[in-house]
Amino acid sequence: MPIGIAYIAAYLKKHGHEVKIIDYLVENYSREEFQKQIKEFAPEIIGITTTTPTIYNAFYLAKEVKTINPAIKIIMGGPHVAALPEESMNNETVDIVCTGEGEEVMLEIVNSIRSKKSLNQINGIYYKEGNRVYSTGKRELIKNLDTLPFPARDLLNTDTYRISATRRRTPHKSDIIVTSRGCPYGCNFCSKAVFGQTVRYRNPENVVEEIEEVMKKYGVKEIQFVDDTLTVNSEHLTAICELILKKDLKFTWGCHSRVNNVADEMFGLMRRAGCRELAFGVESGNQEVLNAIGKRITLEEVKKAVKLCQKNGMLAICGFIIGHIQDTEKTVKETINFACKLNPDFANFSILTPLPGSEVFDFAKKRGLITGKDYDKFIPISGARPIQLGNIGPEKLIYYQKLAYRKFYFRPRYLLRKITSIKSIEDIKQGLVGLKTIISYQSFKKSD
pTM of this prediction? Predict the structure, then answer.
């Protein structure tokens, strides 16, 4: 679910504005159908969320809108344009870029446009007047997240959204919830352009109220908490889990964690409250590489976290990245071998891409490795030629990514474990989807 857009829509509705959400990725509209939607609703303003892999799609949609009605104001937000506002404003279809959280600033923009007032008093945006682009400086982060209404799920077809096969634990209807914003850590490949490095928390009662709403109103029985790291504040998480147990809410859930935010007692409480899987960002099987990228974890902590997770009856999902600036073929092989020995329930292997707003992006930009026309390569698993940041060439990176998936998932030990863990038809379906994905990726050919 596009939770960012849904939050903004809910905030605008709360303040009396008429809002419609079009999720182009899900609805799969033809060009004619999309144009019909725009013409029928006849909006004054359209906001488009952007990530780096989808930025060209965003520009395409903006161009289509301007073809229908050039007077419609196009506002873009999201991590890509927040990190690269000036570059994004160079696109002729973009009128305004939001450089941070969207709820409050979007309301101010809408009110200013409707009342024909200048935008220069709205902090946190870039905007055009004639041929000039103006910046209004930084905007403070929203201090009290409890003032935000729950995302406007009523404007979405919630039946179309599902958690991915490797994350889904049940055949039931699923949804996502965020309990905090921001991440206090400083990994060099990560961008904090929108939510920043200061973590702000929703009140546990407010979080559980949303859980109750999605369960009762939308029939949800599985939830992914999509905070950067749900376990970073043990007191906050403990309060949420205790409320779930007190209210006897029966649902399955998962979240992201760090390997140095673990404790046996906490994992036990999470399991009793319905948690069935945790995702850990491991990133490398070489300690020197981990130190260089600012991960601030040790391989021993990784082993302990996975062991504790599985001991408490939860699945461990580990994410690895190959192609770090410091990586060599030797360290990549160490990462693959470490993943196999670690033996989590699932593993993801991505080729490092320099996300705008990250230190890695700045490194690549300074060395002329990014031209601003490379963003269609920023996809975790594809046949696109990756950007070489360090010692390993693009062809070798793709080779090692394919090798990592083969070595991890086709081990006899792993296959036997997955077969013996099958408990339902849903387990078989999820396994087949994952197998199909891995096999299809092995046949991908590199493209420039």
Answer: 0.91
